[in-house]
Amino acid sequence: MQQEKVIAYASTKKIMKRIITLMILT
In which band, very low, low, confident or very high, does the pLDDT at 1 lie, cut at 50, 70 and 90? Predict the structure, then answer.
């Protein structure tokens, strides 16, 4: 059960990083 939470948190972090990178580049 806890593993799913960790995976969800990791994917969310990845998405946030991508959004920040796009905002900086644009």
Answer: low
